[in-house]
Amino acid sequence: MKPLNNSDSLILLGGGGHGRVLLASLVASGCKNSLIGIIDPMAAKLGKTIGSTPVLGVEERLVFDYPPTTVKLLNGVGSIGSTVKRRKLYDRFIDDGYEFASVIHPTAYVADGVVVGVGAQIMAGAIIQTGCTIGDNVLINSGAVVEHDVKIANHVHIATGAVVAGGVELAPEVHIGCGATVIQGRKIGVGSVVGAGAVVLQNVSDGVVVAGVPAAVLA
User: What is the pTM of this model?
Assistant: First the structure.
């Protein structure tokens, strides 16, 4: 992972809730002046600002006005359950040669030696312990705890306040809901969703939604 610095020129894709959290992270990191502007699909924001940053327009194709060698992108799309929309936005611009910047809030703790992928975002107060690997376009939200030796594949979202215990493996496009807990050594399958507040005691197969205490597959 290449950390953000003031020499980067950035475009934020999405100015909703998660986009504004990223804006706050840039301010806290001293990188606010690197942001050229925001592209947001809400037409009412056109010509306005979000947090003093100008809205460049509403269509994602406006990114192509800036060659890939001149800017990095920030993925301002969050996820509630499915991470597909966030992944598709990332893949679209990666395929066109753009790079997504990684963001680590200065109040997050990331242990030495943790591998952080391209475009990963680690928000305020998150804790990432030793031996972890974090894939591309991963979002680890505010106050989440990821214990030692966790393997997080691409496009995973660990939501606010979730706890992922040691040795867990999260497959691509997994969503771990707010306040959920996954106990040590468990595996969560591709595209599966762990509901808010759930406690996962067993492995979870691909493409299912689990919820409750203990977590069970929803019909």
Answer: 0.93
